[in-house]
Design brief:
The complex is a heterodimer of chains A (228) and B (321).
Chain A (H helix, E strand, L loop, with lengths): L8 H17 L1 H34 L2 H16 L2 H12 L3 H25 L3 H9 L4 H31 L12 H9 L3 H27 L10
Helix pairs in contact in A: 1-9, 2-5, 2-7, 3-5, 4-5, 5-7, 6-7, 7-9, 8-9
Chain B lengths: L3 E8 L9 E8 L4 E5 L6 H8 L7 E6 L2 E2 L5 H6 L1 E4 L11 H5 L1 H5 L4 H14 L4 H4 L9 H13 L5 E5 L7 H18 L2 E6 L2 H7 L2 E6 L2 E6 L1 H6 L4 H7 L4 H6 L3 H7 L15 E3 L4 H11 L3 E6 L2 E7 H8 L2
Parallel strand pairs in B: 3-8, 3-9, 6-7, 7-8, 11-12
Antiparallel strand pairs in B: 1-2, 1-4, 4-5, 9-10, 12-13
Helix pairs in contact in B: 5-7
The chains are: A mainly alpha (228), B alpha/beta (321).
The structure holds adenosine-5'-triphosphate and magnesium ion.
Magnesium ion binds next to helix 1 of chain B.
Chain lengths: 228, 321
């Protein structure tokens, strides 16, 4: 007996065609969802950076506290996104605020870990030289530590951004909006084309966000040190 | 112009069995090139860092130009003291020019003056400004990085220069040329230099004042010739290899010897057949010339005129102890 998966050109063309017409038909709605999705993701990312950056700088100079904070952060990473949403639901209800909080919790660990690693990894000799040249603590932070920690920080942002854009899909479950709405209703009504459109748009967003960060990383001339 | 004085300076790291610097006293006059020589771990770096207050002291006092540094603003103090750190420590995120410009920028020089200064300094440490200005430290060899480190320390024309094994990672040839440049620079700027090394040859060839350090204290202080000819302890004698006659010859110049010795008697031979050497040449170099040419004596020239005639016997007496 011969098994054969039937993939006729008409079937493929059919799905793509359906997806395309779905997209065209719902373009206003999709645009609005994309916008909400981006706002949620980047709002969460910005909040996470604002919270994690100073915290990361602070813990980077304190070994014991740093170990505890990084432990907590990696524990947070284990909790699935959906779990976070479920936990937040009774506290914050539905809508944008709990979605944002959940996404911030997702984005925090990679940023925190990398800010800490970035500042901790600054070459001691460079710090020593800076102090010897009469830099104040603030000048040291601004002109030496921060630029040298920047590449590592950006790597953390890159990790966080993909995670947050992908997970923002789940916000739709608790009324936070975004492209998740298209995907969820697509699943409910079993509309393959609709699912495809939603999934592709999320993937496209995640990829472009990552590409953006990669471009920023590449533009840093000192990003990769040759060890001589 | 700056003199440095240590008075009973002591540094004890927490938890250490004994102090890293154990009550040292020394006066370094202005425009002197003092070399700290001693084995690894004897406290050279620690002592150096007390001068610009990177290392707090647990006893004694340090004066610069007669003023206790404890009463000075450490930030301002550091900006007028050049420091070449042991690990070079260039800023990896700044270009060569930006590295050199750090202190002038901190001092608020205008950009035109900074840029001119950077080019001058790079040329002084034998790096072509055109091709090196815009490179990053990772694009330089170890020796080139050390040159940039020296240029950076010199940038704001400091009157005191601290150099911690500045030529550690370069080969013998580059090392010799950097030593020559350091001497020339010191003569030109009149800076007071405190130079750390555990290379005996380097210490002997550079030092106006040689300080032999051991386990946190000064074993002996003096000119290289004094220390080689009269080592105070067996440790010093062994460290500088004072038994080596050639080494002793290498730290005395023709001028120093003939100034004390009687003038040579006029010679019957044609002056042209006797090698003429400048008074600044070492006895060791003079001996080499005699061995090479077979000449039994050399003429010692001072400012182009014959000041004395030196023969093998005089050399032999000079090296005998
Ligand atoms: N930050 C520190 N904390 C504790 N002990 C230190 C510290 N720095 C140096 N020491 C100790 O103090 C002593 C002197 O160290 P120092 O770095 O001054 O030696 P050094 O003469 O410069 O040696 P080297 O030639 O290897 O550079 C050593 O025993 C060293 O282990
Ligand atoms: Mg040292």
């Amino acid at each position: 007996m011969r098994w054969r998966v039937r993939r006729t050109p008409t079937a493929n063309g059919g799905l793509l065609q359906q997806a395309l017409s779905y997209a065209l038909l719902h373009r206003a709605e999709l645009l609005a969802q994309t916008r909400t999705h981006v706002e949620l993701a980047f709002g969460a990312l910005a909040l996470a950076i604002v919270l994690a950056y100073p915290l990361g700088v602070w813990i980077s100079g304190r070994r014991r506290i740093s170990a505890a904070a990084l432990g907590t952060a990696s524990a947070l990473r284990v909790v699935p996104s959906l779990g976070i949403l479920a936990l937040l639901l009774p506290v914050l209800g539905v809508g944008t605020p709990p979605s944002l909080v959940a996404l911030v919790i997702l984005a925090l660990p990679p940023i925190l870990v990398n800010v800490d690693a970035g500042y901790r990894g600054v070459e001691p000799a460079a710090l020593d030289a800076a102090a010897a040249m009469g830099m104040t603590r603030w000048q040291l932070f601004l002109y030496v530590q921060t630029p040298l920690a920047l590449p590592v920080f950006l790597t953390g942002v890159r990790g966080a951004v993909v995670e947050v854009v992908a997970s923002a899909t789940l916000a739709a479950f608790i009324g936070g909006g975004g492209l998740g709405e298209t995907i969820i209703t697509g699943m409910q009504v079993d509309n393959q084309a609709q699912l495809l459109v939603g999934g592709l748009l999320v993937a496209l967003l995640a990829l472009s966000a990552e590409l953006l960060i990669v471009l920023i990383e590449r533009s840093i001339p000192w990003r990769r040190m040759r060890h001589s | 112009m700056a003199s440095i004085r240590f008075a009973g300076v002591r540094v004890a790291y927490p938890g250490a069995a004994r102090p890293a610097v154990d009550g040292v006293t020394l006066a370094i006059p202005s425009a002197c090139l003092a070399v700290l020589l001693g084995p690894s771990g004897c406290g050279k770096t620690t002592l150096l860092r007390t001068i610009n207050r990177l290392q707090p002291i647990d006893g004694g006092r340090i004066e610069i130009d007669g003023r206790d540094t404890a009463g000075l603003d450490p930030i301002a103090l550091r900006r007028r003291i050049g420091y070449v750190i042991q690990a070079v420590g260039l800023f990896p995120h700044l270009t060569v020019a930006q590295n050199v410009a750090v202190v002038p920028n901190l001092l608020g020089w205008d950009s035109q003056r900074v840029s001119e200064r950077v080019d001058t300094l790079l040329a002084q440490v034998s790096l072509d400004p055109q091709s090196f200005r815009d490179r990053y430290p990772s694009q330089l060899s170890g020796g080139q990085q050390q040159r940039v480190g020296i240029a950076r320390a010199l940038a704001a024309e400091p009157s005191i220069l601290l150099m911690d094994e500045p030529f550690g990672s370069v080969d013998a040839i580059v090392r010799a040329s950097l030593q020559k440049e350091t001497l020339a620079l010191q003569r030109r700027t009149g800076a007071t230099i405190l130079f750390v090394t555990h290379d005996v040859e380097e210490a002997l060839s550079l030092a106006d004042m040689l300080v032999v350090m051991r386990d946190g204290h000064f074993e002996q202080t003096g000119t290289p010739a004094e220390i080689l000819t009269h080592p105070a302890t067996p440790f010093v004698a062994e460290l500088v290899d004072a038994d080596d006659a050639l080494r002793r010859l290498s730290v005395i110049t023709l001028g120093e010897l003939t100034a004390s010795a009687a003038r040579g008697t006029p010679l019957p031979e044609e002056p042209g057949t006797i090698p003429a050497l400048d008074a600044g040449v070492s006895l060791r170099a003079a001996l080499a010339v005699m061995l090479e040419t077979g000449a039994p004596r050399v003429r010692v020239m001072h400012d182009g005129r014959e000041a004395a005639v030196l023969d093998l016997d005089t050399l032999r007496n000079a090296v005998r102890r």
